[in-house]
Amino acid sequence: MKKILWLGLCLYFMASCSKNDDAPNTVAPPGDGGGNVQMGLVPCENGMAGDYPCNGYDLLGQMPLSSFNAGKGNDSWGWTDTTNGREYALMGLDNGTAFIDITEDGNWMYLGKLPTATSSSSWRDIKVYQDHAFIVSEADGHGMQVFDLTRLRNAAEPPQTFGADAHYTGFGNAHNIVINAETGFAYVVGTARNDAFNGGAHFLDISDPKSPQAANGYGASGYSHDAQVVTYNGPDTDYSGAEIFIGANESSIVIVNVTDKQNPVLITSLQYSNTGYTHQGWFTEDQRYFILGDELDEVNFGLKSRTLIFDFSDLDNPQLHDTYLGPTSAIDHNGYVKGPEFYLANYTAGIRILDISGIAGKTITEQGFFDTYPANNTADFSGVWSVYPYFDSGKIVISDINRGLFVVKKSN
Length: 412
Prior knowledge:
With 412 residues, the protein is mainly beta.
């Protein structure tokens, strides 16, 4: 209790907290989750922002895992409160989910944690819909937690230990969750391989966020590790307005029409050479190109960080359009598109920001990076897990497995 009170007061006043017998360790070896809370701008100058290699992106702050009483980090997402414009980082941890108000530079507030529903796990995933966070984990029996983010507005005496507002138990463990905000459906993937949908997708109607309802699923193509679901408005007019599921299914990409939840229809599946583990992908905003990461090709084939670009102009007959190789051998993980940029969580190489404005002409270039794991850039499962680039302020949330939460922003 002393430690929690001490940390809460330090974060509240953003004072310089000296180490004492009751305080969390403020000096620790790199990569063990310890270290200092770092607040305030650290500009990227001469290739470094403090201890971190960088190119074109400044450090706005860092909170180590010890701040959250956690051993490992994993996923991250964000939420903007539309009533007041405040911005919150949602940080996945091995033992729960942390909520941090990052609105004011140099004056963040760690508001509290929603503990895991069952046991701890290295895998946790978070998405947001209608001011609610939806959280799944590979912890046994975890199900899906629903947390009303508007509770953060008036969180008293932070950091709090929060309870879930709803708990859906129609599945146990799950690797990931994706949400189509246009339809109000969530798609939970990577569940038990022997469940009703073979580890494929569970469809959930979350139009009433606190009362999720099962709405069938899709398992004909087997286990889906990750996915994106969109209301399609891309160049293939045969599917205009349809709800399309693109699954990363370990050894293939599957494209499924899930408009009719009771009758999902496989459009096609596709493979590519040097398949290690088909991990995760994201559409360009015009929904013509799908940018895919394979998590094991660097390990299995000795490749540089490889990003595959598929032309989805014809959903029935997608084609490999281009292959981008990064400057290091680090493993690529989660990647997200915002306008003409692709934000790639690249494990030991940090985040890499790719200019995809020339994607049609097969011109993709790295325009910047921020490396939260300066020790090396080897093909190892350490460093950055995920990145959230969607705040209007331009702040970019980074979740690091070993070092916790970072927020960066493009240099002026």
